[in-house]
Design brief:
- With 289 residues, this protein is of the alpha/beta class.
- The protein is 43% helix and 13% strand.
- It is built from 13 helices and nine strands.
- Strands 1-2-6-5-4-3-7-8-9 form a nine-stranded mixed β-sheet, sandwiched between helices.
- Helix 7 links the parallel strand 3 and strand 4.
- Helix 8 packs across helix 9 and helix 10 packs across helix 11.
- The chain is elongated.
- The two termini are 39 Å apart.
- The relative contact order is 0.12.
Amino acid sequence: MIEKRKRLIQLHHVRSVTRNLLRKMIKIDATLMSFFEMSPIELSKLLQITLERATSIFEQLQDQQLWNHYQRNLQNIHVITIFDEDYPVALKHLFDRPFVLYGLGNKQLLHEQPSISVVGTRHPSSMAPKKLHFVVSPLVHAQWTIVSGLAYGIDRLAHELALQYNGKTIAVLGSGFHHIYPNEHMHLYEEITTKGLVITEYPPHVKPKKYHFPERNRIISGLSNATLVIEAKEKSGTYITVDHALEQGKEVYVVPGSILCPQTKGCHKMIQEGAKLVTNANDILEDFQ
């Protein structure tokens, strides 16, 4: 088990190995041992990838100096793999589950329920903090874990609210720990690592990329019993998290707002499409009693 786990973590650091390819590799050989013994040509044929890509994988797996560097980066970081008993049950049954999670803080929060993802626009209205306080603070006091993405706007406000009341919060990053984004939230990130939990599926050296943020949204919704949308514009990235939540069979709650406010047009559309309208925390709590 220890060696299999180590091989998975090493493969997870290989730039040419995507989640889809890693899924394929585990299906072919659950021990992952054979891939460390193959030549580039053998890797190319078995995995049906280009020889160039197979050569890149081979070279990175053979570079012990590089792997030693990556291992040093993992010191003092929780590394949780799908082979571990403490892998979160909430993510275990996702089709596109992360194979490895990296964490800083209280990893027990991955197993505590109930939890709710609080999401919304990066450019909230002046009413957003009041909405959050009115709807979310009772959930914090009721020991719900608040999950969000450390982004600008609603994410930041949700984390700060949980911390303000000594509540539980999990931040899911779209980068590795050596490249916190946005950099302006570094202080918030550090506070959450001390009082909550920060997790990411990206190794510490990985820089944020645009496609990482839609990807990490499946983890935000996956860790949560439900998703709460505070504000969302008509064309909003919040829809990605909502879609993941619905695919995962989770309830979606939405706070309404003024019909004249652009930050709530997306909310009203979600309500029209079947999301549950929320006017106070009891609208959520009554579903989980």
